[in-house]
Amino acid sequence: MFSKDIGIDLGTANVLIYVKDNGLIINEPAVIAIDKRTDEPVAFGEEAYQMMGRAPEHIQIVHPMKSGNIAEFEMTRVLIRHFLEKALGKSLRIKPHITVCCKADTTRVEKNVIRQVLMGAGAKQVVMEEESKVAAIGAGIDISKPSGNMIVDLGAGTTDASVLSMGEIVSFKKTNIGGLHFDQCIIQHIRKKHNVYIGEKTAEQVKKGIGLVLMSGEKPNAMNVHGSDLATGIPKTIEVTAEEIHQALQLPIGKIVETTRDALEGTPPELAADIAQRGIILIGGGAWLPGIDTLLTEHLNVPVFIAENPLTCIAEGTGSLMDSIGKTWTRII
């Protein structure tokens, strides 16, 4: 029997699985719910995510990925095993060949951990590719030519800025600032200003609703936010404005601008000229923050565009890679 070819985007916030000839099959939160009384998993992915802030005390919500790396070995293995069974069938009788993406600065030890997790989850063989290259392919960029292309991945755990030419990474910078850090800034701001505690899911809703990177001349938007009064512990609803959330996000946004600038400044002049003409492509969930492309354009004097498929281009890039190069299972990094 032939093995299935699988591409995995193992992200801090989401796991995406691309099955060759079938497309994107899994796109779910990288979350697992554990019953602390038995140490057994009770829910995975989207189902576990819906339990956040609502589960009883004996249910622990675990995020096994931190800042783009595996933080909980066994929990990640169990989670990936579940998703593979969901994508390919419960028995996993035919072990898949897996292409997985890793950061440009991933160490050999970290790569070995990723490989061990995937092999333990049911993989027959594992190939690793650098995430920036795969993302560029998924975004429709031809990185094989001697010209500069720049990808900025605004992920949940990190922000990565990469310049590519002739299929290689020429300049790379990373900061451990991402969408989850934005959520924490919002939680801390509301706690400090309004004396109200909100959970991570509520903070994410605020970020998506009124998390403006740039303030327009129009009247700022606002939304009602539900939390717990820190003084009394009882539920409380407050109004939060886009302007105050904009101020709360200034520090992490500034770090993202700085990281992107550093990668651009470390680029050879000829390739930098290409980027100035072609622009920078944004991917990842943070690419949807209103105004982030305009803000980066203003600070870098380089046009910045959001990819057509910012959330899925890494997973789809693994599919394009498998289609173009066929079987590459002897190339184990």
From TrEMBL:
Keyword Cytoplasm: yes
Domain of life: Bacteria
Residue spans crossing the bilayer: none
Main location: cytoplasm
Binding site for ATP: T12, A13, N14, A156, G157, T158, E204, Q205, V206, K207
Keywords: ATP-binding, Cell shape, Cytoplasm, Nucleotide-binding
Compartment list: Cytoplasm
CDD domains: ASKHA_NBD_MreB-like (cd10225)
Family statement drawn from the similarity comment of this UniProt entry: Belongs to the FtsA/MreB family.
Record's subunit section: Forms polymers.
Task performed by this protein: Forms membrane-associated dynamic filaments that are essential for cell shape determination. Acts by regulating cell wall synthesis and cell elongation, and thus cell shape. A feedback loop between cell geometry and MreB localization may maintain elongated cell shape by targeting cell wall growth to regions of negative cell wall curvature.
Annotated protein name in UniProt: Cell shape-determining protein MreB
Phylogenetic placement of the source organism: Bacteria, Bacillati, Bacillota, Bacilli, Bacillales
